[in-house]
TrEMBL record:
Domain of life: Bacteria
Domain Rhodanese as annotated: residue spans: 15-98
InterPro entries for the chain: GlpE_sulfurtransferase, Rhodanese-like_dom, Rhodanese-like_dom_sf
PROSITE patterns xref list: RHODANESE_3
Protein's name in the database: Rhodanese-like domain-containing protein
Pfam families per UniProt: Rhodanese
SUPFAM superfamilies: Rhodanese/Cell cycle control phosphatase
């Protein structure tokens, strides 16, 4: 499983890189702020929502601290997706948020 820090992710976003980001936190957590452009798919729905995820592009997966996103990465990797876990998660995120 690939990993990236929140700082490295923010640098990619600030550089204008187009990337696909999935937030696997629960709805109550996302209500406190989500990274602009991120798709919200709670961890418990990842397996049933794979048809909503573009397999042709790398996916960056984030949660609150990195544990649930690592589980989501394992599920997606087993199903042929290219994924990167955002270690530190939203607890470490210092970039912009949408509400």
């Amino acid at each position: 499983m690939n990993i990236i820090t929140t700082e490295e992710l923010l640098q990619k976003i600030d550089a204008g890189e187009e990337l696909s980001l999935i937030d696997v936190r629960e709805s109550e957590e996302v209500a406190t702020g989500i990274i602009p452009g991120a798709k919200h798919i709670p961890l418990g729905q990842v397996e049933t929502s794979m048809n909503q995820i573009d397999k042709s592009v790398p996916q960056y997966i984030i949660c609150k601290a990195g544990g649930r996103s690592a589980m989501a990465c394992e599920i997606l990797e087993e199903n042929g997706f290219t994924v990167t876990n955002v270690v530190g998660g939203m607890l470490d995120w210092e970039g912009e948020l949408e509400f």
